[in-house]
Amino acid sequence: MVLLLLIPAGHTFSQEQSDTAAITKTAREAYTLARRNPEIAIIMSYQAMTASRKLNYTKGMADASLALGMAYLAKYNPGDSALYYNSRALELYEASGNINGKGRACYGLSYVYSFRSDHTSSEHYINLALKYFEESNDHRGMVNSLNVLAYLARQNQNLEAAKGYLEKAIAIASQVKDTLPLADATNNLGNLYKEMALFSQAIEAYFVALRLWEEKRDTSGISIAYGSIGLAYYYQKNYDKALEFSRKHLILSEKRKDLWEVSKICNTIAQIYNSQKMFDSALVYQRKSLVLNRLMNIPVGEASACHNMASTMLLLSQPDSALWYMNKAVAITSASELPLPPEFYNTLGNIWQSLGNHDRAYSNSLTAYRLGKEKDLPLVVSDATLLLSDICSKRGMEDKAYRYLKEHMQLSDSISNDEFLKQVTRMEIQYDFDKKEKNAEYERMQERLLSETKIRQQRILLSGLALLLVIIALLALLYIRHARLKARYTQVDLEQRLLRAQMNPHFIFNSLCAIQDLIMKDKPQKANAFLTKIAQLMRSILENTREEYISLEKEIETLKLYMDVQQMRFENGFSYSIDVDETIDPDNVSVPPMLAQPCVENSIEHGLLPGKKDGRISVRYSLRDGLMMLEVTDNGVGRNKAAELTPLMKKESVSTRLTEKRLEHFRKILKEKQISYEIIDLYEEGNAAGTRVVMMLPWKKIYA
After folding, report:
1. DSSP class of residue 648?
2. For an engineered disulfide with 19, which of 13, 365, 678, 683 has Cβ 3.0 to 4.6 Å away?
3. 473 CB-contact burial (10 Å; exposed 0-12 / middle 13-18 / buried 19+)
4. Residues 353, 334: contact at Cβ < 8 Å?
5. CA-to-CA distance for 514 and 569, rounded, in angstroms?
6. CA–CA separation, 148 vs 126, rounded Å?
């Protein structure tokens, strides 16, 4: 049922221009749906791909490939499918020189390699994407690329570089007032501040991002903001608030089936439960995160989940199980050719300390300390100094133990002073609130000062405007009524004149003479047939002139009657054919009546009769650019020869002038410039070979 809404039933891609537009629209919708509903996106993408191949439409194939790549990536399939289709999209965009398309394909490839934990390739492609987006002046693409670069820099523990990328992204998004990318970059900056233990700045960034997402009613963004705020409250040791916001994030993420966000928030909830000494509950959420990361085939996430479970096992005083999970985390990380995160060394140090292996505990905690210093990670350094102080104390190295403990206490004072952090947060939130209140009060004062004078002016203006509107409405009604009456009069006049032209006295007189001649020659059956045809023709003409539009079937019947009568009048005769395009249903299509007959009359009277035998007239109806195209073609002597044989032909025939006026009338009332009338002289090897009349007519469907 959904697919019928996406692509109209019966659509056959018969017109190239409309087909390419339909393909582009379908591929664009598939790309938009890729994250939310990858299954539908894949089906739509394959439809667009098939249609593009039939038309050899390169851009359509590229757009469809890109949508397929992103849809398979959303299904957490960064292997062959996601890589193949994103790579294929890049090849096609490169072949067509589509710069923005190349940027989007490189952006997709960056995500593919990121999920495969190949950060070197991911960084290569995201830098290419940023370059292409800058060339095409795609600000949103630039902001998204800078966000990815910041993420990769964070993975490499290069926090200063990440901060530079995010500040640049925020500046671009703010300049062009693009709310959603601005919210993404601001939230990412909050995450960075959190890692740098700048919690007050982190909370400020999270609330700014939340307001931006709420402004756009973006549930995905609001969900992420809830998770970020919950984590910030966790670091402030406000576990109830942390759990409240984290559960909000979990509910929204599960509704959207966003496995990546669900896996992350499960880790956060587990951390909160560990802090509350609810270790069994923590393990439930950590196992859920581990299962999701395996399902998504994300090695980094799987390793992180194993590390978190190892930490919980330590808290449960199960160092052997903790070591098993840590070895698993190290093996997964090493297989991905990534450096071990500094916190892994801290956890290993604690495990070995619990197992009584002080040498290995000291070695790992010292590595964590050194990396934390290099990468400017105060939380890692704080944990490492506490462990090093304990190990040194047990080894009798009192001086070192004291120095490490002193450093730990200094770090704790700077990053874990709960009351100070809460006070700073309250002050910042209050400052933001007070600032908004002052601005609102100032605006209210200005409005009160201006309102009194504006009210008087507005009353006068409204009264004058109301009077003017009434006058304009009356004039418009009179004008419309006059225009309609004039148009109706013109239409009636044209129909009456056309009727007189169709009921040509010469034609009727000659037809009756032909009947008389048949009677005199004792051919009563032929005379009777002739008379029947003329009666039917005259009745049909009289009936058709009453309607502005008649069915194409009735128009063709009248035209056949007319040509049958003409065939019976002339002995040398002629043949005719009437062809209707297979896409047209004559019973369900209506056209203005009696537009083909004048053309056929001219072909017979001035084209075929003066010439040789074997005359032919071809009438064809087809659809072109939303109009009905009527073609009347004969193999007569041509207009120049006819003018020599019939001097009256030098002047335009009455029926031709009336036909042109009728088309002009439709062109005006329908405001359709493509309605037209054209006479084309046909030649073969320089000799006259007939005439073709081409008319572009309005038409209507009889049944919806």
Report:
1. G
2. 13
3. exposed
4. no
5. 6
6. 7
Structure tokens at 466: 């109301």
Helix H or strand E segment including 576: strand 574-580
Sequence-ordered strand ranges (E) for 581-660: 589-591, 615-624, 627-634
- How many angstroms separate the CA atoms of 193 and 235, rounded? 12
pLDDT in tens, 435-486: 444 454 545 555 555 666 667 677 777 777 888 888 888 888 887 777 666 6
Delimit the CATH 1.25.40.10 region(s) of the chain. Answer: 12-137
Region for residue 591 given its phi and psi (left: phi exceeds 0; alpha: psi -120 to 50; beta: otherwise): beta
Retrieve residue 131's tokens. 């370059």
* Inter-residue contact 317 to 294 (CB < 8 Å): no
Tokens 């049909």, located at residue? 540
At residue 16 the predicted structure's pLDDT band, cuts being 50, 70 and 90, is low
* Backbone torsions φ then ψ of 177, nearest 5 degrees: 55, 45
The Cα–Cα gap between 395 and 358 comes to 8
Whole-model pTM? Answer: 0.44
**Burial annotation 599-619 (CB, 10 A radius, 16+ → b, else e):** bbbbbbbbbbbebeeebebbb
First to last CA, the chain: 21
DSSP labels, 222-255: HHHHHHHHHHHHHHTT-HHHHHHHHHHHHHHHHH
* Residue 28: both structure tokens together: 């664009």
**Residues 157, 141 contacting (CB under 8 angstroms):** no
- Taking the CB of residue 701, how many other CB atoms lie within 10 A of it? 9
| CATH code at 12-137 | 1.25.40.10
Phi/psi at 619 (nearest 5 deg)? -115, 130
Give CATH for domain 503-701: 3.30.565.10
Give 259-297 pLDDT, tens digit per residue. Answer: 888 888 898 899 899 999 999 999 999 999 999 888 888
- Packed helices 358-375 and 378-394: angle between N→C axes, nearest 10 degrees: 150
Within 10 Å of residue 689's Cβ, how many Cβ atoms? Answer: 15
Written in H, E and C, the secondary structure of 65-111 is: HHHHHHHHHHCCCCCHHHHHHHHHHHHHHHHHCCHHHHHHHHHHHHH
